[in-house]
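In response to reviewer comment 3 from the previous cycle, which asked for concrete evidence that the modeling workflow produces usable outputs, we include below a single protein chain processed end to end. The sequence was submitted unchanged, and the resulting structure tokens are shown without manual editing.
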Amino acid sequence: MKRLNDAYRSQPSAPTMQILVALTLLAGCSLYLYAAMGFSFGVWSSPKAGFIPRIAGCLGVTLAACNVARVWWTAKPGPVDLGLSPRRAFAFLGVLVAYVALLGKLGFLPVTFAATLALLLVSRGRRGLVMTLTIAGAFSVGIWLLFGSILNLPLP
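The workflow returned the following structure tokens.
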């Protein structure tokens, strides 16, 4: 019994795992931003291929750095919970694959609405059906207005 107990104690603690996961996320976002820097940015009135990837990379690095700081300051001992169950993770990936497959066939707005709705349902948010439909609709229309109308970028 002592041997089993020693092995259990040699595992990393929950705060260590949380910090490790947060740092891995920061490294992934940093790598994405580094890759995005290879594309031309353009200007606000005439965006180029690197416009959205650079903005997304900067946003991802900023949010990941904030997450590292949050985990560092608020990490508490306890069980390690890394989030999604495998079934929910595969459902999440399935929704993303279906989104890519249907985007060119059905168009941007209906497929984005359906994918956002499905992702909200898979993530099991604590919202009612009306609020979930409202969030999915507002997100879809907002993205469509931003890229299709304001930035004049072609959408599928």
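Confidence is low (pLDDT under 50) at residues 4-9. We consider this sufficient to address the reviewer's concern, and the full set will be provided in the supplementary archive.
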